[in-house]
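User: Here's a chain of 265 residues. Predict its fold as tokens.
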Amino acid sequence: MASIGITLYNGEDSSLARLDPRTKLLWILWVFAMIIVVLDPRYQSIIIVTVMMAIIAGNLGLKSVFKAGQFGVYVGLISWLLWIFFLPDQGQPIFHILGRPVTNVGVMTGLSVAIRVMTILFAFVIVAMTTPIRSIITGLYRMRVSTVFAMVIGMILRMIPQLQAEHSVIVEAQRSRGIDFEHGSILQRLRRHMSYAIPLTVRSLKIVNEMGIAMDSRAFDPYAKRTFQPELQFKNVDWLLLGAMTLTLIASILLRIAGYAGVPT
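Assistant: Prediction complete.
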């Protein structure tokens, strides 16, 4: 039976793990800004390269990162297919599916949306896997983010793997009772999936309630002044990375103003 995980952080030492947490949080903001500015998949390749470099620098297996962020992959692929389906009249037809034309604009626009969804999600996953939750919260505090927002982010990062493990436990328990989730019509399988959706929801509410009681019992005050140990301090490599992110973002904005990296055609 699956064990209950409480964090995505793997605890391994790596070049990415040794970076200041603020650098990694600002990298997420950089990815978010880049996917807003850069819309053409050909120019979005620089974002993909940084994500792959982060996976290598964090000593993370591609399989483990994919498993943690597989929901985003599915959403990205579905978005790609939907954009292809809803843009049959723009651009040049490439081929036909069920009588509907698939155009180059539909393919490129869908690919752009898919890349945007997947890169921002994988950026979150990579940072969560290489940074303790306490360090993420500390980094947010030092970036002058409100205490309430920082705590919410920390709780979300803590609950994602815990709910994944709870889901696995409930599914295994239901399978042991003879429930088959793989066979039957779509309606039948959907009805069977309700057998774990309801207990998972109840369990989620119980976890949230227990966390609230724990915070109250410790007299948590979101407006109290806080100190941190150890103190965060940017190193040379952090400044180098921050400078590179700033320059690439400025260059991307200038390219967009000049008429490049916009909506793919």
